[in-house]
Amino acid sequence: MLHQFFGGVHPAEHKDLTERKATVPLAEAPAQVIIPMSMHLGAPCKAVVSVGDEVKVGQIIGETTGLGAPIHASVSGKVVAVEPRPFGNGGEMVSVVIENDFQNTPDPAIQHRNNVDALTGEEIIEIVKNAGITGMGGAGFPTHVKLAGAVGRVDTLILNGAECEPYITSDHRLMLERGDAVIGGARLMAKAIGLNGAVIGIELNKPDAIEHLKALAGLTGDVRIEGLKTRYPQGAEKQLIQMITGRQVPPGKLPADVGCLVCNVATAAAVYDAVTEGKPLTQRGMTITGGAIAEPMNVVVPMGTPVSHLIKMAGGFQENPDRVLLGGPMMGNPIYDLDVPVMKSTNCILSMTSKEVAARDPAQTCIRCAKCVEVCPMKLTPLFMRMNANKRRWSEVEALNVMDCIECGSCSYICPARIPLVQTFRAAKAEIRTQAAKAKAVQEAKEATKA
After folding, report:
1. For residue 159, which of 209, 198, 190, 187 has the smallest C-alpha distance?
2. How far is CA 39 from CA 76, 114, 249, in A?
3. Among candidates 168, 207, 140, 174, which has minimal Cα distance to 343?
4. 265: closest CA among 197, 214, 331, 200?
5. How far is CA 288 from CA 31, 109, 310, 375, in A?
6. How distant is the alpha carbon of residue 129 from its chain centre?
7. What is the DSSP string of 60-72?
8. Where does residue 351 fall: left (phi above 0), alpha (psi -120 to 50 degrees), or beta otherwise?
9. What DSSP string describes 412-435?
10. Cross-strand bridge partners of residue 228
11. Which candidate, 341, 315, 402, 314, places its Cα nearest to that of 32?
């Protein structure tokens, strides 16, 4: 039985640009890839290659120093730089720059695995860890950490095939074209955490994907396909949990606290490739789209490919874009340098015209209409969060549970005053984290002095 989640909006989908276009390899590989040492939630990796080194596809070039996932070369060739480069999340990040030799020579460690059925759950998690797999539909949380933390705590594994963000169709195409890998990955992840099956949630605007995966899953009953009423932000994990199970994740808690684990369908396919073929995560499917793009497409991309190269592969700009985003229009990050590289969590490059941006008026005064409260899927009060943030009352903002904001953009979308609420909350969360870190440092210094 399906349930409902709170709030949500119905933005125009704009998926018709690419939803019927098959995923294709790049017609021309990039001459260089720029691979940031941070493509996951957690500490950046430490580069383990140097300028002049020859590397192969799948070779480890970045090792974790804490919470994180290793990073692998996505092309074969020569390392020409290890230095800070512009980064899609803002600022710069130490990156390994590889000059492509166009040979795609694989690392010898990549081997097909014949004994998949004999693997234990612990062995599957270790393979996922070594493959550098992270969440491919959200913040990039290391998948092996998610799986290990779910063992003994979770009774429901949910795969997110909702793809509710406008314009993006890469997961839709993945489910149609590599449904066997999605189903196989679901079964492997379920085994890893000690469950007998999984649920895949797909919005009803993708009926072909629903029917295709149902046919592949068969009558075994271990993988169930649920069609979900189309509503944004259905793909957010807490909303997906509530929709499928009826359980609500309390403020400050995690899905595991209500017995659930949520992963993206692309993550499941990456798990399947790692376990069965020994392939680390070096490429991903993504959508290049928007009104400014001449030939919108779905494409498989090596990690670290510059955005400028991908726009060229999609025919370039047919008109000057108003903005270019990594991600969709609701949650994507605007970029100001087209040479920034794509990362493990980059599922879309969106180039929007001024007409698509809808020529939004400058921000006006809040009239307390409470529309933002009505659509917030986390049941927060955006108008009061913003009021306190503008006055730098950080303790009050935190008390209003701003840290539970999933930055889905529903409040900004619905606001008649065109107030950039999400940007305000991102800045507020960053300030609260900074103050917490300073307070912790002061406390640790005091304790060290006493000792």
Report:
1. 198
2. 19, 30, 26
3. 140
4. 200
5. 19, 32, 8, 29
6. 17
7. EEEE-SSSS--EE
8. beta
9. HHH-TT---HHHHHHHHHHHHHHH
10. 203
11. 341
The bridge status of strand 260-264 relative to strand 333-334 is unpaired
Q: Dihedral through CA 431, CA 432, CA 435, CA 436, nearest 10? A: -150
76 residue type, one letter: S
Alpha carbon distance 252, 427 (integer Å): 19
Tell me phi and psi for residue 223, to 5 degrees.
-120, 115
Residue 307 backbone phi and psi in degrees, to 5: -60, -40
> Hey, how many other C-beta atoms are within 10 angstroms of the C-beta on 306?
21
For residue 344, give the nearest of 308, 305, 378, 303 by alpha carbon. 303
DSSP labels, 145-196: HHHHHHTTT-SEEEEE----STT--HHHHHHHHSHHHHHHHHHHHHHHTT-S
Cβ count near 325 (within 10 Å): 21
What is the mean pLDDT of each successive set of 10 residues along the chain, which is 451 residues long?
81 95 96 94 91 97 90 98 90 95 95 93 97 88 94 96 96 98 97 96 97 93 94 92 93 91 97 97 97 98 97 96 93 91 95 81 82 94 94 94 93 90 91 89 81 64
Distance CA 264, CA 95 (A): 26
Residue 78 pairs in a beta bridge with 54, 99
DSSP for 389-409 reads: HHTT-HHHHHHTTGGG-----
Where is 13: in which H helix or E strand? Answer: none
Other Cβ atoms less than 10 A from the Cβ of 300: the count is 14
* Alpha-carbon span 235 to 172, nearest angstrom: 13
**Radius of gyration of the chain, Cα coordinates, nearest whole angstrom:** 22
